[in-house]
Amino acid sequence: MIRLEGATLLTPDERIDHAVLVLDGERIAYAGPAQGAPSAAPEDEIEHVPGRVIIPGFVNAHTHLAMQILRGVADDVPLMPWLEEHVWPIEARMTPEDILQGTRLALLEAVAAGVTCVNDMYGSMDRVAEAIGESGIRGMITQGLIGAQDAERESLRRGVALHERWQGALGGRIQVALGPHAPYTCPPDYLREVADYAAALSAPVHIHLAETRGETEELARQGTSPARVLTQSGLSRQHVIAAHMVFPGDGDIGILASLSLGVAHCPVSNLKLGCGFAPTRRLRDAGVPVGIGSDGAASANLLDPFLSMKAAAWIAKGVAQDAAALTARDVLRMATREGAIALGWPRLGALERGYLADLVVVDLRGYRLQPVFDPYSALVYTATSRDVERVYASGRLIYREGHHLVVDAQDVLASARQAAERIAGQQLL
Ligand SMILES: [Zn+2]
């Protein structure tokens, strides 16, 4: 077993100083005060980590990892022209190899920032699953489905086949959802068909919903709303992960709260694409679990959960004109445990016996962080991903002090550069 001794365990609910954390394979065997900890066995691997805090691994509740290869390809453009004039034409030229290399590049950044679970939607998802497997972390994956491009139902078949191949694979590290892209790309009859497949597979549903005001207004013109799209199509028979939810329709929050559903709040992407401010406080007050996602790097540029936590807190406070609207503990919960609940992933996102041993050791001793009156404040409002010292996923140390331990970062970088230059058709900086 691995024993981490001397750190402060920091979860949204409690802070335990001078703690002991014991990892038994992929699970946490003990997390608590030193007195009360099981005694160490001679074969245990003991790590002394005083001065650090240990938090659950971050759950990135909505992303498109492969878009890392498109980072910076089109900035400062609103969502619809960004998609239609820039992203979709380039994506049409991307090969499965480009997707693999983009995903591997994204996972370098994600792991180094303490992300141990991702909820990813894209194409060529077998390559994405391979990359997640290689990285050591876990992920919920889904083939993105666009109704208008799917007359032959080829994408839907691929999404179903993905479920058959990968659901529960790699010792449960891979889960598979069905992913209708959004109401504006998937007409109602297509959504009903996806819902039937999701029910037959008992698969969760991952969808972009209410990302812009225009989208919600268009649904209102059709006599419906983002939440009603879920209930009318039957998608809400399954657990739903709704990405964005910036503009719920009238009465939607009550409907969302009555469903098995989590929202993936993507504050950085929503700000950068000029979409607006998701009503996280109202959603959470109604009982809707709200996780935090980065969205893809083509929109958000960074997959950094520390940045997303700050943005989530700042937006909620600014919009409510209330500094208490979302506290550091609230935001830490959203980025970890609440994200796992939003995904419907059991036994994930907490430092408790029996939970999956996904955790992050953060070093708060540096001059950028000192003094630390309150570790929650330091972690959420001051720390950056550069303060991540170690990352454990499924009980395995995968990152330590700037070094990736299970992937060859130089190889990933070289392959990603090649892929990006092929897509760009020119040498890049
Ligand atoms: Zn997205």
Polypeptide structure, described:
This protein is an alpha/beta fold and 429 residues long. α2 crosses α17, α13 (305-320) crosses α14 and α14 packs across α16 (375-382). Helices cover 39% and strands 22% of the residues. β9 (115-122), α3 (125-135) and β10 form a beta-alpha-beta unit. It is globular, with a radius of gyration of 21 Å. The model has no long low-confidence stretch (mean pLDDT 96). The protein has a 7-stranded mixed sheet with strand order 3-2-7-17-18-19-20, covered by helices on one side. Strands 8, 9, 10, 11 and 12 form a 5-stranded parallel sheet that branches. Strands 5-4-1-6 form a 4-stranded mixed sheet, with no helix packed on it. The protein has 2 domains: 2-55 and 353-404, Urease, subunit C, domain 1 (Roll); 58-343, Alpha-Beta Barrel (TIM Barrel), CATH 3.20.20. Bound molecules: zinc ion. Zinc ion binds at residues 62, 64, 208, 243, 295-296.
Q: What small-molecule ligands were found? A: zinc ion
Q: Estimate nothing, just give the exact number of structural domains.
A: 2
What is the CATH class name of the largest domain?
A: Alpha Beta
CATH homologous superfamily of the largest domain? Answer: Metal-dependent hydrolases
* CATH 2nd-level architecture of the largest domain: Alpha-Beta Barrel
Q: Average pLDDT value?
A: 96
Number of helices: 17
CA gyration radius, whole angstroms = 21 Å
Q: How much helicity do the residues have? A: 25-40%
Strand order of the largest sheet: 3-2-7-17-18-19-20
Low-confidence stretches: none
Fraction of residues in β-strands:
15-25%
Count the E strands: 20
